[in-house]
Specification:
The complex is a heterodimer. Chain A is of the alpha+beta class. Helices cover 29% and strands 23% of the residues of chain A. Chain B is α+β, with helices and mostly antiparallel strands. The chains are: A alpha+beta, B alpha+beta.
């Protein structure tokens, strides 16, 4: 049995963090192939040796100007831009096309956006995870747009018999100012299509001061469809003749079906079939269970309630959160067996310290709880399968299905649909593989629908964790030693579970003269995975709260204490966007402090708390302003966010991500957890998993330092500082130090 | 029989215990109304029954015989409802999955209270979860729709 959840996304993140920044991927010269289509019909620039694609073929047939797979200009002036990656609420279906439209100088109103089919051979990477969509695609998409602009300018210059260098482009037009002439992109489409495609790596891209679109506020391209209830999401997919399926798995992961009342289930109204799937034993693909196929979702749901399965739990999880907490507390003060980081001599430094501080922090397992429960539609046609997925890693989903059904990848025709939330859940494609396995047994298209309870109980959870810290301060209140013991989990006995590791570079260790991080891994079978800002979402709470404890013990201002730790501006690994840049870090801390009114007096019972965290290539500092009453009831009045992710693509989307991250961060730290006993997840629905509601949503003020570093993602890095900023504000307001999430376990309410 | 967005629909042959949600989605193909929890906790399935917001996921069709249902698809007539327009103007959605339910609740609120306070809004919207955390924008959009005219 394999419990590997999302090694794929770890690979993506690692590749991104290690890649040099100045080489545009997917445009390396050997991967470019130029070829001419039917005479006069168009040119296609592909990113591999794949000779064509359905999209390119359609464009050629329509006599559109389609210089690459990302865009088409029709003779009537309509511009179609293809968004290649999954939209999960992070706004990429608006951001990707904006990048292309900017470089091609398209008028945004002329642009219609289409979602790409899954075919990484022509689009390059198609995934949404690790906040890597923007940094991984920035060069590729800019050059796709710039290619179109260069060719449209060349077509106009040829038509006017003037040098291309005298022409400019703006709002879907080429302009020759000297002769006061202009031509629309539509009027140039056919002529541009007859020109050779230039080498995209040699094109001159715009500088930030030349941007007309990027950095402004744009409403999302799907918003009209969203507010009018158009079919848009995975769950909305219908195929003529489609049946509806549910899938019941063992409540303790690893259990197998011993027997089930299938004969009875098959007699129930609307039920077409019921059968056992043995699965392939891979938690991220198909675990054993019972499938019920019916003529409606409700018939299937009703039959699922009547289903009785006897599980063979001999190999199933017996995990217990209660036992885990007891084990962690018992071993916390020892050093962990694994050495993660060792700098200087912590023992000596602590001996010489004027003051030492110790603390123990903890946090629970949490599910992703996307509002659209997991599901997938599949139509197995014998020698191929067509699928409609809401995956963050559809290219991986396609590979998994091809392998499982023994089909060539091109025989897995995969459409990507808007997903009702991702947060890392859809990096893992178990619902896609399950749907494929069920579809293979059903002679009709079939939509697999998980119930909310299925979704909450069969997740890849943000692993819980524990941190025991000791910090040493010298006589001047300077941090001179840091010791951390991180208690996490392993399911293979060798490596930490997904989302449950700590890096040697974790702040602030590499900035200190003496630092030590050790790790203990407790055994676990419960599947774990990346949850919005994996690792950071929990580590930041512990680390940045403890840094505040040290600042308080030193009698120093938190801002000043943090800035001292950061020290001189330096990039810890130059040109690596995954490495902390202390200059950018200090700048966001100062900006958050300035914008939040840091240091200005507040009434009694009200306080400000600060936290910084660097993750997913984003530097973020946040200040929360919080009131606390005598009953430990808190009010979060405002959270000021200061971030540096380079230039902003869509300011409205960027602010929305910050607002969402703060709300998500508060919701999770305050109230959210799942218990695990006898391998079972105890919570099943929103009654027991109380997501924050409107009246408690804080006001969020987002400020961005739009530096000239290449832009990086914003789906995640605004989240980690939220919890420690609020916890530190609670301390400032009341003297109450909160070290265990969720806060409701410590009697805190909102 | 019952009316959906002004059109008579027959309930013949449908299990009377079936929640309205699944009749809308699976039988009538009106998929704007969403499934989130199945127990009236999240509000993603909010529709109007004779103008009042209800949770379609726990409303059996036996309870709506002879009555009028409005769904998100029936909100706009020749132009968008002011609430829908405000949702676009304020770029409210992130994933967008909850927003049909949020909008249906907001429209009912404005019918009842054309100029709601923040407290009125928080109260009326308390049954609708947004997992992405767009609450502040929802509040702004409701205020904007209220100012822009009767929703």
């Amino acid at each position: 049995m394999s419990f590997s959840a999302d090694s794929y996304i770890s690979e993506i993140i690692a590749e991104f963090e290690q890649a040099p920044r100045n080489v545009p991927r997917a445009f390396s010269r050997r991967s470019i192939l130029k070829f001419t289509g039917a005479a006069g019909a168009g040119l296609v620039l592909a990113f591999s040796l794949t000779p064509s694609s359905a999209e390119a073929a359609a464009a050629m047939a329509a006599k559109d100007f389609a210089p690459n797979v990302f865009l088409r200009v029709a003779p009537d002036g309509g511009i179609v831009i293809i968004s290649k990656g999954p939209e999960i609420g992070q706004g990429i279906k608006t951001a990707f096309p904006l990048i292309i439209a900017e470089e091609m100088d398209a008028a945004w109103a002329d642009v219609r956006v289409e979602q790409a089919m899954i075919n990484p051979a022509i689009y390059g990477r198609q995934s949404a995870g690790g906040s890597t969509s923007i940094p991984n695609s920035w060069d590729q998409l800019r050059r796709a747009g710039a290619t179109a602009r260069a060719m449209l300018i060349a077509a106009a210059a040829k038509q006017w018999n003037v040098p291309a260098s005298e022409c400019t482009a703006s709002a879907s037009k080429v302009i020759h100012a000297a002769s006061n002439r202009e031509a629309t992109y539509g009027s140039l489409a056919i002529k541009a299509a007859a020109l050779p495609v230039p080498d995209a790596t040699k094109l001159t891209l715009k500088t930030r001061s030349e941007y007309k679109l990027l950095g402004n506020r744009f409403t999302g391209v799907d918003n009209l469809a969203v507010v009018t209830g158009k079919p848009l999401f995975g769950i909305d997919q219908t195929v003529p003749g489609m049946l509806y399926a549910v899938y019941e798995k063992c409540p303790a992961v690893g259990g197998k079906v011993a027997s089930a009342n299938l004969d009875y289930i098959k007699t129930l109204p609307g039920v077409k079939d019921a059968f056992v799937l043995e699965g392939n034993g891979i938690t991220s693909e198909v675990m054993p269970g019972v499938a019920i196929v019916a003529d409606s979702t409700w018939s299937a749901f009703k039959a699922k309630r009547a289903l009785q399965v006897v599980w063979d739990e001999s190999g199933a999880s017996k995990d217990s959160w209660t036992k885990i907490i007891a084990d962690a507390k018992r071993i916390a003060k020892q050093a962990g067996a694994d050495s993660i980081q060792k700098i200087g001599n912590v023992d000596e430094a602590l001996k010489g310290a004027a003051k030492t501080v110790e603390a123990f922090y903890s946090y629970p397992f949490v599910p992703h709880a996307t509002l659209e429960p997991q599901g997938c539609t599949a139509w197995f046609k014998g020698d191929e399968i067509e699928m409609w997925v809401t995956s963050q890693t559809p290219e991986r989903a396609r590979t998994n299905v091809a392998k499982m059904l023994n089909l060539a990848e091109e025989k897995v025709v995969m459409h990507q649909l808007r997903a009702g939330g991702g947060f890392g859940r859809r990096l893992v494609n178990d619902p896609v593989s399950e749907a494929a396995a069920i579809a293979q047994r059903v002679n009709a298209p079939v939509k697999l629908q998980w119930t909310r309870e299925d979704d909450m109980r069969h997740d890849f959870y943000r692993p819980g964790g524990f941190h025991q810290f000791t910090g040493g301060l010298d006589a001047n209140g300077k941090l001179i030693a840091w010791r951390g013991h991180f208690i996490t989990f392993t399911s293979d006995g060798k490596t930490p579970v997904s989302g449950g590791n700590i890096a040697a570079t974790e702040f602030p260790a590499p900035l200190l003269a003496n630092a030590e991080i050790t790790q203990t891994m407790l055994p676990l079978m419960t599947p774990c995975g990346a949850w919005r800002a994996p690792r950071s979402n929990a580590i930041a709470f512990a680390v940045q709260s403890f840094i505040h404890e040290l600042a308080v013990a030193a009698g120093r201002d938190h801002v000043e204490f943090l800035l001292e730790i950061m020290g001189e501006p330096r990039w810890m690994a130059p040109q690596n966007p995954g490495a902390l840049n202390t200059g950018r870090a200090a700048a966001v801390v100062k900006l958050a402090a300035e914008k939040s009114g840091w240091g200005q007096p507040l009434p009694k019972g009200r306080g400000r708390g600060l936290a910084f965290h660097f993750s997913h290539a984003g530097h973020f500092a946040e200040v929360a302003e919080v009131s606390v009453d005598a009953q430990k009831r808190i009010t979060v009045h405002k959270v000021t966010v200061a971030g540096d992710v380079g230039p902003i693509i869509n300011l409205s989307g960027a602010e929305n991500q910050c607002q969402g991250a703060v709300t998500d961060g508060l919701s999770t730290m305050l109230n959210l957890q799942v218990g695990i006993e006898n391998g079972r997840i105890l919570e099943g629905n929103f009654t027991e998993y109380p997501i924050l509601r409107m009246k408690n949503a804080p006001i969020v003020e987002a400020h961005f330092i739009q530096s000239d570093f290449p832009p990086t993602g914003l789906g995640e890095p605004a989240l980690p500082p939220v919890a420690p900023a609020i916890a530190n504000a609670v301390f400032a307001a009341s003297g109450l130090r909160l070290r265990n999430m969720p806060l409701r376990n410590e009697g805190v309410t909102i | 029989m019952f009316k959906v967005n002004g059109t008579e629909q027959s309930l013949e042959g449908i299990d009377p215990s079936t929640p309205l949600l699944w009749v809308l989605r699976d039988t009538l193909g009106l998929v704007g109304t969403k499934y989130g929890c199945g127990i009236a906790q999240c509000g993603a399935c909010t529709v109007h029954l004779n103008g009042q917001p209800i949770r379609a996921c726990v409303t059996p069709i036996s309870a709506i015989e002879g009555q009028a249902i409005t769904t998100i698809e029936g909100l706009a007539t020749d132009k968008l409802n002011a609430v829908q327009q405000a949702w676009i103007d304020y770029d409210v959605a992130q994933c967008g999955y909850c927003q049909a339910g949020q909008i249906m609740t907001a429209v009912a609120l404005l019918k009842d209270k054309p100029a709601p306070t923040d407290a009125d809004i928080d109260q009326a919207m308390s049954g609708n979860i947004c997992r992405c955390g767009t609450y502040v924008r929802i509040r702004q959009a409701i205020h904007a729709a209220a100012k822009g005219g009767v929703a």
